[in-house]
Amino acid sequence: MAPLGPFHKDNAKIWFIQAEACMNVANVTNDTIKFYYIISQLDADILFLVKDIVDAPPATDKYPTIKNRLLQLFSQDIEPKVLRLLKCRRGNEKPSHFLHRLKSLARKKIPDIILKVIFLEQVPEALRYILLVDKNADLAELGSIADEIISFELSINKAIYTRDVAIKEYHMTAICQTLSYQITQLASKLAQLKLEYTQQLSERQRKHRLKPQRNKHVPAQPDSESTEQNSELCYYHRRYGEQAHRCAIPCTWLLIKQLTNVTVANASTENEIHDP
């Protein structure tokens, strides 16, 4: 059969006259062939409005059924209402509220089956499959069932969110406790190391004070002064004394050395004066 032009929304009756003329020319009288021929000539947006018939064609009178539906939808009085309904979006409305809005716009001039198709297209896909199970449910029942399912889903999502937040808080608390314990342990170890270092330093200073003086002419210094001088020496001179090959600032070694030399020189001079 010859292809038809696009479906005439403004004059559906003329379009069907053309379609039937094509079928008569081709001697097509079979109801099923007529039905599928009409379907093959419809655009996707028009097929959407007869989706229920296409998905489940009646056992008899397939062609008259789809013809009457399209003529009814695109009559001059109904077409603007159908177009307004197709532009409706549910958004965050409860399904029952959205359905009530559709029925208010239809004003009992649009078949419930059309409202059902538009309604089902505006609900989540998973919910749509559940609602399609009961093919005999009317619009009010569909709206109530959809409300209950969405309410249950929201409560489940809230419970999951609450659980996830609790788990995160528990993990954060555990992490904070672990970090606090580790910081306490580190502080304890640092205090122990500081104590050991102080003890070792005191022991070294004590041993240094107990060493005999190499130069007999240098007068002995009080322990407190020796300790103070020791504390002003760098690590190398404190440990190796005159054998040190390095020096680190601050260090009083050179100053002490010079004072010692002066003291020795003065002592020698006094000895020469007193000798006959």
Automatic annotation (TrEMBL):
Residues 6-86 form the DUF7041 domain. Residues 205-217 have a biased composition (Basic residues). Coiled coil: none annotated. It comes from the Eukaryota. It holds the Pfam family DUF7041. Residues 204-228 are annotated as: Disordered. This is DUF7041 domain-containing protein. The lineage of its organism: Eukaryota, Metazoa, Ecdysozoa, Arthropoda, Hexapoda.
